[in-house]
Amino acid sequence: MPIILNFLNPTELGIWYILMGLNIIANILECGFQPVVIRYIAYYLSLKEENEKENILNLLGSIKQIYKNLSKILFIILIVFGSFYLKDILIQNFKIKIIWIIYIITLTYQLSFSYLISILNGYGKIASSNKTIAYSKILSNMLMLSFLILRLNLLGLVCANLLGVFILRYLLYREIKYLNITKLLENKNYKGKICKKLYREAFKMGIVSISQFLNTKYIFFLFGRYFSLEIIARYGVTIQLFELLTKLSRLPIDIYIAKLSQMIYKEKYKKAFDYYKFILVIIIFIYIVGGSILIKYGNIVLEIVGKNQLLETKILFFLYFYYLIEIIYGVSTYFLTTFKFLDFYKSFFISGIFCSVAATLGMIYFEFDMLDVIKIQIISQLLYNFWKWPLEIYRRYLKYEKNR
């Protein structure tokens, strides 16, 4: 990411971050299914029934078909609504149109095989999954650097992105072969009954994804309509670093979620709660340390590697607090999914609506600045989600202790 700061001007950087922001559409479509798929695979593997192979065949066939449908939906959304959103940028020149078409192909193709990541995680091969993603990112970044040196700029970035997706698919299929399920994935003789169950549960998780979009990514698109591309570039760099830190901090729960699911299915509640408490402490520690380093040294590092800057320190502190809140209730609700508890989708959706409407009205009628909008984001989560879902876990723990 810092590499591109040396090659792109602020306008190009702003366009790049707007394109990157459109990734959220794919994430919204997929995120509803990803945790559900992981949980179902962990569940069927823990049963060890005689018809386990048939169950896995039906599950994998359903998953593959679902992701094909999702990729078609994504393609239509990007072509129609994405092009409308970017119409002011697309009319600038023909090269931007080519860049947009390549980016559409990249996002659509990546979503079509993203179920492979969920399958690896469901089988407990989280380390292999993360390693594969890391390798593809490294190779993609090397291609980006090569194309940027050749002065291909934005066109080079999207081409490197597309090639990185091809590399990711190849590496994922290589890991899948070690699970000996390649023939099951290629088998089309599966019963689609389980699709209904997946769609039902994924719908609720999809609402959660939409809510997260309204709470965070919608704000990015809102800022894109009211601030210059230079400001958007600074905001994009800042958010990308905080989201990277959040993703790194959450690695422990991502690694152990399949194991936690199996513990719950086998009714090893005490062990599961102990794991959860330990994981949450580790995650918060990683984030606090990493966030402190980011705020203190972020601009110094960016001055060395590029031309861009983070947002003002005051805004950084508010973002730091916001993402800490998001981590705490996000990890809690992720753990609650192992109990097949998904009722939090309602409060997520309400807080998302509140945040997006309040931010929009504030910017249109009351001239809210960036800090005002970030405060709305914080308030929308503090009102309910921040305390409710950790408390729900504590209540379940007390209930378990009482019934021992």
UniProtKB/TrEMBL annotation:
InterPro entries for this protein: Poly_Biosynth_Transport (IPR050833)
Keyword list, A-Z: Cell membrane, Membrane, Transmembrane, Transmembrane helix
Origin: domain of life: Bacteria
Coiled coil regions in record: none
Cellular location(s): Cell membrane
Entry keyword annotation includes Transmembrane: yes
GO cellular component: plasma membrane
Chain segments annotated as transmembrane: 15-45, 66-86, 98-120, 132-149, 155-173, 275-295, 315-336, 348-366
Membrane topology: Multi-pass membrane protein
PANTHER family cross-referenced by the UniProt entry: PSMA PROTEIN, PST FAMILY PREDICTED COLANIC ACID TRANSPORTER
Full protein name: Membrane protein involved in the export of O-antigen and teichoic acid
